[in-house]
Amino acid sequence: MRKLSCTLAGISFAAAAMLCIASSSARASDEKAPCTGPSTQSKLERALVRTAEHLRAHQPLTIVAIGSSSTAGAGASSPAASYPARLEAELRLRFPDEKITVLNRGINGEVGNDMLARFQQDVIDAKPDLVLWQVGANSVLRDHPLGPAGDTMREGIKILKAAGIDVILIDPQFAPKILAKHNAEGMINLIETTAKETGVALFRRFSIMRFWHKERDLPFETFVTSDGLHMNDWGYDCWAKLLGGAIAEAATRPAPRAITSATVSPLAPAVQHATAAPTR
Fold it and tell me: Region 228-248: what's the mean pLDDT?
């Protein structure tokens, strides 16, 4: 961006002050524009098997994003600025030759049980290859106990895995209204534990947004609306970019080599013989 100098020459003091403020705001906007995340937190620990198979076979890929207001797009300037819409655009950029559809199944104010109740109609019936389940935020805001939330997630994941669908859990946002609740960290830990126990991927939105605020020194207003809870256009867009990158990496990473007799070292039998306990 071309730098603007603040000068009083030829204009009033008030006009010069306004020029300085506008210039500073523009520079701040430029500085916050790059979308980055912590490398250790922006990748998925689990491969996306079905997603990878569809991409390799050049088959249409259907993704369902289910969740509450973060998925529906509360705080975005338009439906096109919601994270599912931005994710579809990001994935199509990364895979220009593939047909990729992201369906937005977010409803404001829902908790896990509400979403689970509409799994058949809003998720399974769409025949998705990948489901993104954003969950936990409203339970935290309403001070719901963590135990039932964990049971709901496990039941939902069981249903999705039985249908052969890839799953990514998405935890709550790092935002003032979430942070003010006593069980916020407990929910983050519960979602991480549930993902590990059920063998599904986890996108660590909370940690990524904390990185924006703590490590990049971005004020909350950079990525959260004035209500202190919902994400804004920049936040949704960056979330979608990082999630799109994580999905692309997980779906294209090399599969582990199967161990066969041809890959076993010829020294293995000798070593085994040498270290075997002598017979008596």
Answer: 98
